[in-house]
Design brief:
heterodimer; A: mainly alpha; 0% strand; elongated; B: mainly alpha; Putative membrane protein (chain A); DUF1634 (chain A); transmembrane helix (chain A); transmembrane (chain A)
Chain lengths: 128, 278
């Protein structure tokens, strides 16, 4: 029974961690949004044209360049990256939980999930 | 229409989508993509990207509430996430090689299927024994609290469930939705997991699955800040409102109405897809 208690405590912490991630990312997106609308609000949107690889904020380096000049869109993207990292933090948390329980099988399974997600994120940095 | 008007309109549309999605348990993503494409003429790839981001936000935001009920089976979730994340990465890759009209048609089909699933009766029978050796190897069997105390349940057909989950992940990566209905189907009907456990464990997996395709989406330019801004904040706000309204009141009626609305939207997506309007 003791094991289940630990599971619950860990889950509770994880739930709060996820909510914190969502709150932080929403605040960043909101701030970026205000700047974006202030600078570009009166422009005409071109969302019917897909720019794909030509888009201005589709990789970490491009987003960081935009952040340096306080571009609203770059700040929004930063908030979205925080959001994407939130469930990944949960996976890392689970790993620590399984480590405490000395559950080797599930430590391995958790690492596999982390590896798959990392593959996708690295695809974004053009390494893969 | 200027960017500011566009942003405000999409914000309120997403607020409504998030509200209805949370009340009915169908998720807001299913309404976001048709709304952006059919109503606002947004390219479907931007719509898919924004929807995926909204899916991560709502599933992470709802997790804290679900955890309080204490019925998520973390081991089961982690085990199945190997299937859903693999599927999601594959789906995100396939998406960029699939013509947009084909994606719209698949979306319409899945929409109808999910609406049908949401109207079906849920599995409340609990297996007390299982022949599945894998369920013991991977420690997937668990217990959950009821007013009468902890009840144990056993998991069956682990391999069938695993591959259905991979399919659910693939669709999530291809269409930018949480495919929660399919995840629950895999756990309910195939693995025979009690409904309360499958719903919360599905939510646990949705955010992780969506995060697995998000990197590829970002790199391919699917995630546009101008569209994600009103969609993410709107859907989150709506889901929050929905969870406040969600008492033990009967939502089955609402679920039925919403299912029919979704079928109508699906037909519109199919019609436009077949006429190559995307």
């Amino acid at each position: 029974m003791k094991k289940i208690m630990q599971d619950d405590d860990l889950e509770y912490a994880m739930g709060n961690l996820l909510r914190l991630g969502v709150v932080i990312s929403s605040i960043i997106v909101f701030i970026g949004g205000i700047i974006f609308l202030y600078k570009h609000g009166t422009h005409i949107p071109e969302y019917h044209i897909f720019k794909g690889n030509e888009s201005m904020f589709n990789s970490l380096p491009k987003i960081f360049i935009g952040l340096k000049s306080f571009k609203g869109q770059a700040i929004i993207q930063l908030g979205i990256i925080v959001l994407i990292l939130t469930p990944i933090a949960r996976i890392i948390f689970s790993f620590i939980g399984f480590l405490f329980e000395k559950d080797l099988l599930y430590m391995l399974l958790t690492l596999i999930v982390l590896a798959i997600i990392s593959f996708s994120l690295l695809a974004g940095t053009k390494i893969v | 229409m200027s960017i500011i008007t566009f942003t405000i309109l999409i914000f309120f549309g997403s607020l409504l989508a998030g509200f209805l999605g949370s009340l009915t348990g169908l998720g807001g993503g299913f309404v976001i993509i048709p709304m952006l494409t059919l109503l606002f003429g947004v390219d479907i790839r931007y719509a898919i990207g924004a929807s995926l981001v909204a899916v991560i936000a709502t599933s992470s935001g709802a997790a804290a509430a679900y955890v309080k009920e204490g019925i998520t089976n973390i081991r089961l979730g982690m085990f199945l996430e190997i299937a859903t994340t693999t599927g999601a990465v594959l789906g995100a890759y396939i998406a960029s090689y699939t013509p947009v009209n084909t994606i719209a048609i698949i979306f319409g089909g899945i929409l109808i299927f999910s609406a049908y699933l949401s109207l079906k009766k849920k599995n409340e029978n609990i297996l007390q024994t299982t022949k599945s050796k894998l369920s013991y190897t991977f420690k997937l069997n668990g217990t959950y609290p009821t007013p009468e105390g902890e009840i144990g349940y056993k998991v069956t057909n682990v391999i069938g469930g695993f591959f259905t989950m991979m399919g659910a992940g693939l669709l999530s990566g291809l269409l930018g939705v949480g495919s929660g209905a399919l995840k629950v189907l895999a756990m309910d009907n195939i693995m025979r997991i009690p409904f309360k456990v499958s719903t919360t464990t599905s939510n646990f997996m949705i955010g992780v699955t969506a995060a697995a395709s998000a990197g590829i989406y970002l790199y391919r330019g699917y995630i546009d800040p101008g569209i994600c801004l009103p969609v993410t904040l709107g859907v989150l706000g709506g889901a929050l409102l929905g969870s406040k309204f969600l008492t033990n009141a009967k939502t089955s009626r609402l679920r039925q109405i919403f299912a029919f609305v979704i079928i109508a939207i699906a037909l519109e997506m199919l019609y436009n897809g077949f006429n190559k309007k995307f």
